[in-house]
Structure formats: structure tokens, C-alpha cells
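Dear colleague,

As promised, here are the two records you asked about, laid out in our usual form so they can be pasted straight into your sheet.

NAME FIELD: protein one
SEQUENCE, THEN STRUCTURE:
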Amino acid sequence: MTQPTPIRRGARAGHLDVALRLAADGLPVLPLRPGKAPFGNCRTCENLACGGRPNMLTPGPCACPLPCHAWAAATTDPDVLASPAWKTAWRRAGAVAYHPGGIGVTVVDLDDADAVAWAQAALPPTRTVATTRGQHWIYQGTTRSVNGVLKGVDIKSLMAYARWLGPGTGTLAALPDAVRALTVKKPTAAPSVPRAVTVPAPAGGGQCRHRSPAYLERGIAMAEQRITDAASAVHTTVYRTFLAVLSAHGRCGCLTEGHIARLFTAAQAKGESARHCIDAWSNARTALGM
């Protein structure tokens, strides 16, 4: 991770100016709304068309003509950053963010003094950046991104974004195994054996807009991962994931019973019953008028 020229506190540089400077130094950046949420940059992605979550924090497989949302929008291309597509976003932006995984680093986001104290005792020193309530500890190397690995501790690396708060101080250290271990979901009980459930695939009939089988495969894989990563509200996550998959792939005849079985297996591995899976699938179809 390069260390861009620090921006003076007294300088009133616009967010786009900051973003262009960071991009020139190799940081893939994107605008954030006030409140630190990303913009929904592409109308094609509204209503879960790309398979992303409703809050747009995690995009799905997207072939949008415009910059997609969340970490997938991060870029170093100055023409994209200053494009008409982002004109309104930068004017309304509350901050600049970057994609840590895109530059090969991991951010350990420490949200309060207790979390900082834990890091000082448990992790090797590295580059640190002060935040509003705590610190970002930045390490060289990438890993999965998981929120809430400990109280007040989030891991932001691949498929995630972090707010740019300055270059920080200190020297980058290699990502320690202690951080990687936090991203591994540990079972709290012996998982039940998933029961095979057969659900008919949607008949389809609409024109397929997918450019290749890889588009569908990526969508199913990301949906499985989204369910697997759910740390809470599993019922809601399963339903919303089913809704996203059906919204993107349910009307053109791409989905097969094998694809559906993969989603059900992921849900049952998180503790959902076969009946809950069937109900969530049926409710998602009803919500979409299928």
C-alpha cells in the first residue's frame, strides 16, 4: 500500500480531488454517502437485479454499463471517477472509501477503546489510522472480510470497502495468522445432515440476458457464500438471497434443480430446516409474482 501525499487538514479539497489523488497512487476508490453507505450507482442494479443485498453493501454478479455499487465500484481510472455517471455522487458524497483487497491489504477496524486495547495485546504492530471512535490497523496481505468477528472488531479486505481517513503512521506488517483465524466461521454445534429436497426449477421462457454460463455460476457461488457468512438473522438472509437469485435468474430458464439444491444445502448447513427452505423459496417467488 503506497502512502499518498498527506492532505493538509486546513485544505478544503473536494472528495473527487482526494479520490483522484489516491487513484493516481494506485488506490481503487469510490464515493460514500453521508453515513458511510455506498451509492447505488446503477439503475440496472436497483431491486436486486445484480444479485446484491437490498442495502447495497454487497454487490452480486453484475454486468452494468455504469460503475456498480459498494466495493465493486472502486477504481483507479480517473475517467471513471470523473465521469458524468458519478457527478452527482461526488457532489453529495460524505467521504471517500477504498477497496483494501484491491491493493493487497487488510484493515482491522477497531471500533472503540476496548477493541484497540485488544489489538495492542493480541496483534503485531503495523500501520495505524485514527478513526472517529477507534483505529484502523492495516496489514499487508488479504483475507475474507467479516464483520463482528469480535466485539467492536471488523475485518475488511476482499469484497469490502474501508473509509479513507489518511495514510496513517507506522510500517505495514505482514497479515498475521491471528487475523486470518478470526475470519474462519467456527461451528457452535455439530451441524445436522442436510436433507435432500427437490424443488422444481422455474419454467422460464423469458429472453436470457446472461452473456455466459459463468455469470450464473458466479451468482450461485456468491449466493452460497452470502448464506454461509450470515452471522445472524439467518432466516432473513436466506430469504433475501433466494429473492436475489430468483430476481436475476428466475425468469429466463437458467436455474436448474441442481442450482436450487446448492442454495438449500448452504441454508441447511446454517441450521435452516428443509421446510424453512421450501417456504423461503416459495415466498420469494410469490414476492416476485412468479
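NAME FIELD: protein two
SEQUENCE, THEN STRUCTURE:
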Amino acid sequence: MDRDEILAWVKAERLSLADFLDDLDEHEWQAASLCPGWTVHDVAAHLTLSTRTTLLGTIKGMIRARGDWERMEADKARERAARFGPGELVAQLRETAGSARRAPLAGPLDPLVDALVHGQDVARPLGRERKMPAEQTVAALEHVLASPFYGARKRLLGTRLVATDQAWSAGAGSDDVRGPAGDLLLLATGRAAGLAGVSGPGTERIAARL
């Protein structure tokens, strides 16, 4: 993978997600997402921030949140959701879909993880299917497993992930967890919703940590 290929993936996923959000009604925009305490509207607002966040803004946000990264992200998403309506956020997502700009400290694959996972965060609670492209999902999953930011190593300790929809596996644990790569990605990023699509002796181990 080179950066141009990754950027093309990110652009395609953002545009697809914009189309998905554009199809939601007002009630669905106010529904709860998989992110605790976040509505679909909040998640959409968050997705527009990665190409608009500055280092100075991040520092100020961390000070206001007293060093709590998750609290800072939630505060920023809700503030933006209060400022912009659904149509405006969809337009913003499309406007910067191809932007190479990333949030401070983010790597090239982090925006792809963001779009893929948050796409499921909004789709699954609404009972809507949102397919995850195979190659991109595996690339995102491998990045999450290697990055200390997502906490996947601790979460998945002692387990071996095995994709059932493509030839991929990772981990040296004694307990297998088998399922579609998309569900494995959700588990790796701390989403209990991924448990619905997996099986194997390692499932209970992961469930206890989520």
C-alpha cells in the first residue's frame, strides 16, 4: 500500500458514508449510535473533524477535558453537531472526502479506520446494512492491531483472530475467535456489537473485556 492508494480508499469510504447519511430521516439522525452517549448526528459531526482539526485546537480541547482524550472527542463532536444540521455535515464530509489532511498524531490509515468503524456505529443500531470492503477492512484491522492507540493488544490478549470471509488471521493466542473481518475490526476497536458475528473459544474472553 502507498499513501495515494490509502487516500483513494479513504475518499471512497467517506463519499459512500455521505450517501448513506444522506438517506437517513430526522428520527434516525437522533438515534443512539454504538458510541456510548453519541447520537448518529454526533458521529457524523465527528467524521467531519479529522480534516479540520488543528494541533492548537487539540491542545486546547485536551486542557478543557482535563487530559481525557475520549471526553475531548465527545465534546468536540457535540459542539459541532449543535452548530451544523444533517445536510450541512453531509456536504462537509463530501467537500473534504479526498483531503490528505489528518488530525494531529494520526497516521495515513487512521482516517480509514475512522470511516469504516463509525460507518458501523451508525448503521447497525438503525438496523441498516453497510458493507465493508474486504481489502480495506483487513488493512484497517492490521493497523488497529499494531497501533497502541486503540488498545487492541490488551483487549485481544490470548486470542487468535481468524476471518471467515477471507484468507486472514492474526494473533498467537490459544483461543480462536472466528468471524467476518468487519466484526473482528469492531471487536479490535472495542465494539461489543462485533460479538454478534463471531464464534470460538476466545469469544467469552473478549466479551469480558469489552
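A couple of things worth noting about protein two: The chain has a mean pLDDT of 94. The longest helix spans residues 3-22.

Best,
R.
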